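Thread: quick sanity check before group meeting

JM: Hey all, I'm pulling together slides for Thursday and realized we never actually wrote out the predicted structure for the chain we discussed last week. Dropping the sequence here so it's in one place. If anyone has concerns about the input, flag it before I start.
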Amino acid sequence: MLNNKSILITGGTGSFGQKFVKTVLSLYNPKRLVVFSRDEFKQYEMQCRFSPVDYPCLRYFLGDIRDPDRLHRAFANIDVIIHAATLHDVPACEYNPYEAVKTNIIGSQNIVEAAIDRNVPKVIAISTEEAANPVSLFGATKLCSDRLFVSGNSYAGSGGTRFSVARFGNFIGCQGDLPGRFLKASLSGKVRIADPEMTRFFMPVQKAVEFTVSSLEVMNGGEIFIPKSPSMSVGGMLDALCPDAEVEVKGLSLGEEKHCVMIPGSEAANTYEYDDRYVIQPVYRYFERAEVGGSGQKVAQGFEYVSNKNGYRISKEELCRLAEVRGKC
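JM (edit): ok, ran it. Output follows.
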């Protein structure tokens, strides 16, 4: 599907972005692959790994999603956009709320409008579990972003740009992941955690990239795609990675929740289950859809997809294997 296509990824120098670029260069033959981000040093580092000399399809665009003029220029003749740029650190967003709004909300609006104006066929935004039931400013801004992308289909109209969302839990197996932070802290012999019973969804970043590409293939516009992901408790993670470390329990911080919700009960009426994912269909029919739900099975009334009630658990062995390859994205 991505062969001979012009693809642009915002936030292309991040962990997801770099893995996406590596995957596309390995498996497909794109016409152009544009890495759009605002950090010139990260782009320089990335060019040392993925050089336009070795990969002539690569383009590195400096720009900020807050700048609609730059987006309008960058989106010229683009076929597919992956939107992965975001301010995601919860404490930083709480302390700098205006900045979070400018990037995560206004930036998303800029992308929707520029994509429509440039007639980009497909756009998929990378989202987070914290958007489903937000308790932090970060989660609230991502909820707004998700709604903007879903509603973008009504602005595009029939036959126009199509927007969808892919919602993930914690990425694992890359630089800065939670297991890696625990292992680094354990070198001092002491690890601080919020609550050993806290649970989170986890997904290898490579699997997240593959899920995003598969979602691009089947999207009609307006869907929120959620992969079936394993869960693990913080206590189980500590037992697997640093069982001898002294543990200090500090309690939940501002913006933290004990368990994560991927699909709240309020979305059950519009949610369909497939073999490898859940799909939340849009409430409004912005345009005539070929099929609603497709081969999926509508979930039961009141269904919730929550990390502590998830029967799919990541094993200690798999966690240790993934932790060993962090930083090699």
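AS: nice. The radius of gyration is 20 Å. Residues 97-117 form the longest helix (21 residues).
JM: adding both to the slides.
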